[in-house]
Every structure is written in structure tokens, then in C-alpha cells.
Amino acid sequence: MEKQAGAPLLLPELSGGHSRGGASVSSAVFNLSTSIIGAGIMSIPAAMRVLGVVPALLLIAAIALLSDVSVEFMLRYTGWSSAPPSYAVVMGDAFGRAGAATLNFFVAFTTAGTLVVYLIIIGDVMSGSAGAGKEHAGVLGELFGARWWTGREFVILVTVVVVLLPLVLLRRVDSLRFTSAVSILLAAVFMLITMGIAVYTILSGTAKMPQMLPDFSRLSSPFELFTAVPVVVLAFTFHFNVHPIRAELSKTSEMKSAVRISLVLCSVIYAAVGFFGFLLFGDDIMPDLLTNFDSSSGSGVPQALNDAARLSYALHLMLVFPLLYYSLRVNVDELLFPGRRPLATDTRRFLALTAALMAVLYVLAIAIPSIWTLFQYAGSTFAVCISLIFPGAMVLRDVHGIAKNKDKAMAATMIILAVITSSIAIASNIMSSIGGDGEGVRTVAS
After folding, report:
1. Number of helical H runs and strand E runs in the chain
2. By mean pLDDT, which of 88-97, 215-224, 368-377 is the weakest?
3. Domains along the chain?
4. What is each CA distance from 363 to 44, 107, 219, 358, in whole angstroms?
5. 322 versus 204: which is more confidently predicted?
6. Mean pLDDT across the chain, nearest whole number?
7. Which of 114, 115, 188, 266 has its CA 20 to 30 A from that of 239?
8. How far is it, in rounded angstroms, from Cα 274 to Cα 276?
9. Within 13 Å and on the Cβ side, how many CA atoms surround 148?
């Protein structure tokens, strides 16, 4: 039964170490970067507001480095099992069926939460939202006013059925390489628009110069600084897509290079959007930066440019959605139907599970009023485990005796740092929620 645990949602000819007509490194970079850059980028400016610019940039670099190390650990233990390579198989090899099932659940929860957030953000952009007691108009509302077809329920439904469903029905991950390339281009467009607006505010004298270091006078406790750590960890949580993307490469040894290129590219985009978003909106930054780009932004630039920023990123999320949906579907399938034949070869099960999951995601996106209500602790728990704790635990377990002492030291350090920072962040978020104040960062899923 374990041999099928967490198998990538790929057709048989793509499930081996060398795929037929293998993908290039650039294709892998596009898919990896798309897996990394999701809605999490929208929380980076809020994290920068809490930490200050310099500590936030250092944190982004540090988490990117740890992500590279943790992926290297995962890949080192790949291939020892006879099952098709996947994160769950590697976990199962180290910790048995319980380990694989735990990983399946954590990935399913994290990706489901992330995809719900994507739908909520798309609804916010198109139909508007309310946050911190303030109404934020949507693009459709600004253009056409309040009508039945501009409501978020209808807009999200049309997005799910017309745009997303055809993409999630594709059975091969490599079929998404072109949409992934477009999604990265759209993320870059959003970054450039944000930079352009920020430069305009500097020239016009309306820019809000950001704090370079933390402003402790605004914090109810110094421990609130730790709330920014899970935000950045969640923004770099892409480990569940490493093996499916690796399976497409004609030379699997090129995966390490693809990961590092992707991490550098995404770090630059995160840093740029974080800095210029903070520069543009200052203390008025919402947990979802896109909400700031409406008619009340006060940036003094044409509203059409604000709308272009929002629409570019909403479309980016639509193109990211199917890549994460693959991981959600295959991990849910492994939890519900362990030991069955690969999902991509069972049309009835594939279609039924696809329809059921899409319906659940739609209902949750309509029922949850804000992007952080249910998932604000995801970065402190599941994402930290997926990104740092589980890869470190594999090295400490070292069932194949291949880890060096320095590897185990690094793995132990990763786990200790993850547990300490996450525990402090969770406690700080709870205290802030009870007290109703503080500058702690509310997590937006990646």
C-alpha cells in the first residue's frame, strides 16, 4: 500500500526519474516559481511594517536559504523506495505509513487553505471587501456599480467554472508550464506597477518613508516581531510540488539548480514588492496588499493603474491555482483511497474527486468573510512542518545512514528554530486576538 502513497498526479510515462520528452530547467523554474509566488507575497509588506525593512530583507534571505537546504535534504532521500518519488513516499520511507499520512494531511490542509484564500482574494479584487471597518471597492463595482452579477458569489462561481475547472482537469503537471510562465510574468508586472506607483509618490512628495528597523513603540510586546517569521515561511512553502516537477526533467540532477534559481528570483520579487508596498502605503497596509489598490488608496495616481495592479495579480492567482490544486487532489486521494491505482489513470475517481474538491473550495471561499480568519496560524503550524521540521526530521532519522554530522547539526538547528519561533508567534497572535491590538502579522497563505 505504501508504494502508491503520495504518488505525483502524472500519467505513467511521466512518473519516472526520466520523463519522455523531458522538460528543461527553465520549465522547472517557471513551475517552481509559480508554486512559491502565490498570495503570500501580499503579506510581505505587512511583515516588513512589523520588522522594519532591513530585518525583513534578512529574514527573506534566511528563509530562502533554509528552503534550499530543506529541499536538498528531501532530494537526498529520494529514490531509496521502489514507489514513484514523492514527498509523502520519502516521509513514509523514514516514518512508515503514519509519516506519509501525516504529510498527506498537512499538505492537503495547507493547499486547501491556500486555494480558498486565492478565491477570496479574487472575489475581493473583482467585487470588493471590508477590512478594519473600511469598505474597499472591487474593480467591477467601481466600473458598473452594485449589480447581481458583480457580487462575489457570482464572480467566484464564474471564475471557478469558466477559468479554473478546465485547467484543473488537465492530468499532467507539465501541461501547466506555459500558464506558469505567464503567471510569473504577471507577478513581475505587478511588481513593476507597484514600483512605478511608489516612484511616482516619491517624486510627488507623498511617499511614506518606511522604517528601516523595528519601531518598538508600536508593539504591545517585542515578541510580536516573531509573527513575521511564519508569514515568510509560508510564502516559501513549495516543497509538496518539488517531486512532480522533478519528474518532468530529463536530467533529475538539474533540479537543485532549478530550485536555487527559483528561490533567488522569488526572493527578489518578494523583497521588491515588500519594500515598495511599504513605501507606498506605510501603516495603512492591509493584510492583503491588493486591498490597498482601490479608489481609497490615496496614492494620487490614475485609478486605472491601481486596477491594473489588482487585475494582474488576480489573474496570476488564477494561473497559480491549478498547480497547487494538483497537490491537494493527490494528497486527499491518498488519504481517502490508499493503495488504489494512480489517480490519473482512474477517470471516474479523478472526475468525482475534482468536482467534490472544487465545490468545497467554492463554498469555503463564500462562507469565510476574510482571508485570515481560519488560516492565520497555518504558517506557524503546517507550513513550518512541511518546509523545515519534516525535512530536518528525515535527516535526524537517517534510515539509510547517509547523513553527515554537519547535516544532522543543520537539521537540528532548523527544527529548534522552527519550533521556537512558531511557538512564540502562535502565543503572540493569541494574545493579540484576545487583546484586540498589537501589530502582529496576520498570515495570508502562499
Report:
1. 16, 2
2. 368-377
3. 2-435 (1.20.1740.10)
4. 27, 20, 36, 9
5. 322
6. 77
7. 188
8. 6
9. 0
Burial 296-309 (b: 16+ CB within 10 A, else e): ebebebebeebbbb
Alpha carbon distance 151, 99 (integer Å): 43
Report CA torsion sign: 199, 205, 207, 209. positive
Q: Give the Cβ contact number of residue 404 at 10 Å.
A: 10
pLDDT > 60? residue 197: yes
Q: What pLDDT is attached to residue 391?
A: 93
Q: Length of the chain, please?
A: 446
Check: CB of residue 301 under 8 Å from CB of residue 197: yes
Q: Which helix (H) or strand (E) holds 214?
A: none
User: Is the predicted pLDDT of residue 356 greater than 90, yes or no?
Assistant: yes
Spatial CA neighbour of 313 closest among 424, 203, 226, 186: 186
Q: What is the pTM of this model?
A: 0.79
Task: Give phi and psi for 136, each to the nearest 5.
Answer: -125, 120
Reported in sequence order, the residue ranges of 138-191 that DSSP labels E, i.e. its strands, are: none
Distance CA 236, CA 69 (A): 12
Residue 443 pLDDT greater than 60, yes or no = no
Q: What is the mean pLDDT of residues 22-27?
A: 72
Q: What is the 3-state secondary structure (H, E, C) of the chain?
A: CHHHCCCCCCCHHHCCCCCCCCECHHHHHHHHHHHHCCHHHHHHHHHHHHHCHHHHHHHHHHHHHHHHHHHHHHHHCCCCCCCCCCHHHHHHHHHHHHHHHHHHHHHHHHHHHHHHHHHHHHHHHHHEEEECCEEEECHHHHHHCCCHHHCHHHHHHHHHHHHHHHHHCCCCHHHHHHHHHHHHHHHHHHHHHHHHHHHHHHHHCCCCCCCCCCCHHHCCCHHHHHHHHHHHHHHCCCHHHHHHHHCCECCHHHHHHHHHHHHHHHHHHHHHHHHHHHHHHHHHCCCCHHHHCCCCCCCCCCHHHHHHHHHHHHHHHHHHHHHHHHHHHHHHHHHHCCCCCCHHHCHHHHHHHHHHHHHHHHHHHHHCCCCCCCCCCHHHCHHHHHHHHHHHHHHHHCCCCCCCHHHHHHHHHHHHHHHHHHHHHHHHHHHHHHHCCCCCCCCCCC
- pLDDT of residue 432 exceeding 70, the answer is no
